[in-house]
Amino acid sequence: MLFDDIKTEKDLELLKCNIMRDKNLHAHFMDIRKKTATTYGPDLKHASNPNDERRMPSNSEMVAYYKDLVKKGEQKPSKEVEQILRKIKVRSNSGVAVVSLLTKPYQCPGRCIYCPFEKEMPKSYLSKEPAAARALANNFDPYAQVQNRMRALVANGHPIDKLEVIVIGGTWSAYEKDYQEEFISEIFRAANNFTKGDDEYETGTELSLEELQQENETAGARIIGLSIETRPDHINEEELNRLRWLGVTKIEIGVQHLQDSVLSFNQRDMTAKEISDATELMRNAGFKVVYHMMPNLPGSTPEMDIQMFGDLFNGNKYHPDMLKMYPCVVLKGSVLYTMWERGEFKPYTDDELIHVLREAKKQVPRYVRILRVIRDIPASYIIAGSKVSNLRQVILEDQKKHNWQCECIRCREIRNNQVQLDDYELQTIEYNTVTGKEIFLSFEHTSENKCAAFCRLRLPDKDATTTFTGNLEVLRDAAIVRELHTYGQLMKIKNKGDQGQHRGLGMRLMQEAERIARESGCKKLAVISGVGVREYYKNKLGYKLDHTYMVKTL
Ligand code: SF4
Ligand SMILES: [Zn+2]
Questions:
Q1: Which of 140, 262, 353, 443 is 20 to 30 A (C-alpha) from 43?
Q2: Which residues of the chain are in CATH 3.30.750.200 domains?
Q3: CATH for 421-553?
Q4: What is the CATH number of domain 254-412?
Q5: For the CA of 362, the nearest ligand
Q6: What is the pLDDT of residues 522-538, one digit of tens each?
Q7: How far is CA 75 from CA 14, 33, 360, 395, in A?
Q8: Please, are residues 183 and 142 in contact by the beta-carbon 8 Å criterion?
């Protein structure tokens, strides 16, 4: 029976994806959709089109499907299933709605031994991971992926006026340039079209990327951040120039380890020096930098892994802004699987892994945000290695039990709490990297360990940006704001409220950044702003668009 295996929200998502891919299920589902068509609201009338074959099932449609099967006696009624159908939520995170989508199946130039390969997936992704399954159900079409995700957000009551778009799938820089341009254009077109009436649609061939971006500056759904993932050895000035043109604001790179011996053993084909050089370049171009780290790689030990997390922040070489920790597991279809079969690799026990992650987190400074401590791989894929899927929870409990705290931003951000301004004060952390200085400004609670807003200001060394050309040329002699973030409950633009987003904390951080930049002798301040935030800098703060950055002469 179709709904029998639905134990979690993830199972339900996978079932939806299956429906999109299975001809018979899809035909039956479409019958039900036509019978139960509802509207999502006046702005979104097209979202309810009962004939739209490419739209993913919504939750209310899944309820109708389930009830229909029960009525026909093809499904046993189940309280458990009904509960999941009722409570499913879509992720919306720290004041913005997150939309993740995958690029098409493609080979990666890398040959990392732990990396799995499935024919119908981009390298390193597995078809039953939630985001991957959704992409497959949408045939990797960027337009459909974005619009379906937005519909799910709307159906679950989330505002979609501010979107953070995360493009995942293998190595972005290895895809053909035409494909990259088309893919990103389609993302903007999907966001722009979403709140329009049927007759105002952009059909896909009319507007250039720049025109679509320009339109998004004032669209109903604005893209306030855009990230891609790539390899450090693909980062150079030319690539960064191009990424700016595409509208990218954040780069995720696979680092995995910092010891050359471990990198080499795992066939990463890069050195720690290349990782550090790439990081400097990205920072000097204003990008936010996310490192993917992989404890438990063959050739490493728990001690080496713990040391590695310390090395990220001691010295001046790395200092990523955000971290994703993806402990290595043995997956079918990887070289590591063969090694494991031959007894040449033994993963850590769960206790060892938790020990490593605990000691890793203890070393993470207050200006870093830990995005994940585990990758969402369904346990059925994992041949060996940790299958603890609620690792984050386990570590939280460990914190309480052993009385320690993770100081990262994610653990300290105020989330939905209300901000009483008197309770917060402006604090500064400074650290040096190889070719510049980072200044982390934040509004911190005076008695509780909570953060309401922050800004990453970079002061590159004089000669660090002299070779920059094209889009990057505006950064010569400039201080750079790489990130500005205020926390609080997701609210629509223009709504006034007590939450951090609307209390001018962002503006006050920018004033402080301008003051520091001026006093440091910088001629201008440049902000790597998402396309959808340009209006804010223009109207509220007097910045002007100059080669993809928002710039103010000081
Ligand atoms: S670079 Fe990334 S996607 Fe490519 S093989 Fe290595 S881990 Fe896999
Ligand atoms: Zn944390």
A1: 140
A2: 254-412
A3: 3.40.630.30
A4: 3.30.750.200
A5: 2
A6: 999 999 999 999 999 99
A7: 18, 18, 47, 38
A8: yes
